[in-house]
Amino acid sequence: MLDRLSARKYVSMSVERQLRLPHSKVTSIEELGLDNDELTRYHQYQQEQEQESTRHRRDHTSAFTVGMPGIMSLADVQSKISLGRWMVKIRTNMIVHLDDLQGWAEWDIRDGTSLKAYVAELAAALGPGLVDQLMLALTA
After folding, report:
1. What is the pTM of this model?
2. Is residue 130 a contact partner of residue 74, using CB atoms and an 8 Å limit?
3. How many other CB atoms are found less than 10 A from the CB of residue 4?
4. Starting from the edge strand earliest in sequence, which strands make up the sheet with 136-138, in order?
5. d(C-alpha 20, C-alpha 11), whole Å
6. How far apart are CA 140 and CA 90, in angstroms?
7. 24 alpha-carbon distance from chain centroid
8. pLDDT single digits (tens) 97-128
9. What dihedral angle (degrees, nearest 10) is formed by the CA atoms of 78, 79, 80, 82?
């Protein structure tokens, strides 16, 4: 499941099961071995994924863009808090820094769909004093 979510932003398990899509990113359509009906459904699914991604980015209102009172600005968060060094507990026993997560460096802090953006908003609300004392917990 995590492989699917890493390969694609949006996943419909029912469609992926029907089309027998691999867990990893699809590099070529030929490798899927789909018949014409399945191929049509696969192209529809790809379009739905892109539309959902675009809609989600458009609909996300960041605490930074609305100027929410009482929180730090994005510039302050970036200059005063080292988000990547924030500790995160994954599942039950794995503790790492956020910048150790695959994709952390590539995620855009301004993209409302990224974990980095959510973490930045939380850090802006908590402030540097609490961020240094807290550990995030990501659970399945």
Report:
1. 0.57
2. no
3. 15
4. 94-97, 87-90, 136-138
5. 13
6. 9
7. 16
8. 999 998 899 998 888 778 899 999 999 999 99
9. 50
